[in-house]
Amino acid sequence: MFDFFTALLGEHQLWTMFFSAFLSATVLPGNSEIIFLGLAAKIQLPAHIYFPEDVCWLLFSATIGNGLGSLTTYWLGRWFPSSDMLNPTSKVRWVLAKFQRYGAWTLLLSWLPVVGDLFCAVAGWLRLNSLQALLFIVIGKLCRYLFLLYLVVGYTFW
Q1: Could you tell me which residues come within 8 angstroms of residue 46 by beta carbon, excluding any fewer than 6 positions away?
Q2: Going by C-beta distance under 8 Å and a sequence separation of 6 or more, which residues neighbour residue 111?
Q3: Residue of higher predicted confidence among 9 and 59
Q4: What's the mean pLDDT when you consider all of the chain?
Q5: What are 7-33's pLDDT values in tens digits?
Q6: What mean pLDDT do residues 121-125 have?
Q7: Is the Cα dihedral 142, 147, 153, 157 positive or negative?
Q8: Helices marked H in 10-129 — which ranges?
């Protein structure tokens, strides 16, 4: 099945990865991990090179796309007026408690399903520094994709 999709996409695999990662990180439903794993499984890894060019470009497009998608959710959160949060749900209260305790470091977990989007939106609503938010978001997303890459290629990669 992965062969069909990768053959269908041809030379636009990295753009597909970027847009899938971008849309998956916004409030729209998506699952960029499947595309990432499919594309990573097709990359031939030479024994003497730890990060071949294909792997670097795949990591770059996935991480930047996912990071920019989360930053979009962050900016959407900045548009929420404080009066909308007078009666927050239990999830929002939980996220607010994490931000009060850990601050912007919480955004390292922005890759988590469901609550990751909420982390980004609440960070925007709290008006956290956007560059600091972007840094923590991108680090978290990169670590997630590195872990997924490790799952695909296993010990031969490291």
Answers
A1: 52
A2: 66, 140, 141, 143, 144
A3: 59
A4: 84
A5: 656 678 889 899 999 998 887 777 888
A6: 90
A7: positive
A8: 13-25, 32-41, 53-78, 90-102, 115-125
Report whether 138 contacts 87 (CB < 8 A).
no
- Note the pLDDT tens digit of each residue in 87-114: 777 877 888 888 888 888 999 999 888 7
- Asked if 68 contacts 32 with a C-beta cutoff of 8 angstroms, the reply is no
Encode burial over 101-110: b for 16+ CB neighbours within 10 A, e otherwise.
eeebebbbbb
Check if the beta carbon of residue 73 is closer than 8 Å to that of residue 119.
Answer: no
3-state secondary structure of 28: coil
Measured CA to CA, the distance from residue 136 to residue 151 in angstroms comes to 23
In three-state secondary structure terms, 149 is helix
Angle (nearest 5°) at CA 56 between 148 and 68: 75
| Burial tier of 29 (Cβ tally within 10 Å: 0-12, 13-18, 19+) | exposed
Q: Are 25 and 72 in contact (CB under 8 A)?
A: yes
